[in-house]
Amino acid sequence: MKESPTARRRALGQALRELRIAAGKNTAEAAALLECSESKIRKIEYGDVPTKVAERNALMAAYGATEEDTAEIHSLAKGANQRGWWQSYRGAVPRWFQRFVGLESAAAEIRTYEVELVPGLLQTESYAHALINSGNPGMPQSEIESRLKVRTERQERLLKDGARLVVVMSEAAIRRVVGGPSVMSEQLTLLLDIQQQAEVEIQVIPYAAGAHPATGFPFVLLRFPDDVAPSLAYTESLTSAAYHDRQADVDTYTLTFDRLRAIALSPADSAALMRQAAEELQT
After folding, report:
1. 163 vs 143: CA distance, rounded Å
2. What single DSSP character describes residue 84?
3. Cβ distance 121 to 155 under 8 Å?
4. pLDDT digits (tens, 9 = 90+) for 2-34
5. What is the pLDDT averaged over residues 128-133?
6. In total, how many domains does the chain have?
7. Pick from 133, 49, 51: which is nearest to 98 by CA?
8. Domain-embedded: residue 143
9. 169-to-30, 163, 175, 212, 254 alpha-carbon distances in Å
10. What DSSP string runs through 182-239?
11. 132, 205: one domain
12. Predicted local confidence at residue 213, as pLDDT
């Protein structure tokens, strides 16, 4: 398992949830066991909060956990309460986004569809700087630098850990000139360079493709190693995020992503379009 306390907590929570359901207990009964709110039980099962040894033991005893179940829970709990690397950048990662960064760090494959912008994992520093400035006028330079460092570390960890990255972008993402022609030209050059890496694939949906199943709805799919947790889909707004981990939802997002790839240009043709867009910035 990749070292990510968020992923470990999610796997731990998933295991506890499965034990609860198998025992025929609801979240209200689990909450009564720990003398806490149902909200806390849901947060434990979604991996949003750490758990204490006494809490885990009480739940396992009530759920009738076998020795094998108990060993698995104790194994998953190791490292689950540690701080994630992103927590050292205080204030730079919104609380609602921290869970995603932790899960992303543990993913074996990241599939993302973007409508208007180059995905954060592929942004140059200048491009990201321009975005942060445009969306947060007046933000202190120190906070901007912290956000840029988080983005850079996310990129470096992705490349170091060898996770597969599959990107589908609308043509709008490569045509929208963020930060001026020179910044955008540099960004397109990076996309062309990074596409040469074996674990990165980039496709562009041209304007000519018209409407499609995800028109206007960017999302990310995270697939984890078998021993970590089930796949999930992630969507976000300006101030919050949603995690879709019901199998039916994951299947819908997966099917949609497959359809997007089918209507998008091939990686080679996508590269040609990006190269054309870069050349037009020079004229």
Report:
1. 28
2. P
3. yes
4. 556 677 777 788 788 888 988 998 999 998 988
5. 89
6. 2
7. 49
8. yes
9. 43, 19, 11, 12, 16
10. HHHHHHHHHHHHHTTSTTEEEEEE-GGG---TTTT--EEEEE--TTT---EEEEE-SS
11. yes
12. 87
| Distance between start and end Cα atoms, the chain | 49
Cβ atoms of 128 and 73 closer than 8 Å: no
- Domain membership of residue 82 (yes or no) is no
CA–CA separation, 36 and 131 (whole Å): 42
Same domain, 264 and 145: yes
d(CA 3, CA 12): 14
Quote the tokens at residue 126. 């200048």
Q: Which residues pair with 114 in a beta bridge?
A: 169
Output the CA torsion 57→63→64→67 (10° steps): -50
Residue type, 158: L
Which DSSP category does 266 fall into?
P
Amino acid at 262: A
57 and 105 co-located in one domain: no
pTM more than 0.90: no
Spell out the alpha helix ranges (H) of the chain.
Answer: 5-22, 27-34, 38-45, 53-63, 67-77, 95-106, 125-135, 141-161, 171-175, 181-194, 247-263, 267-281
**Is residue 12 a contact partner of residue 47, using CB atoms and an 8 Å limit?**
yes
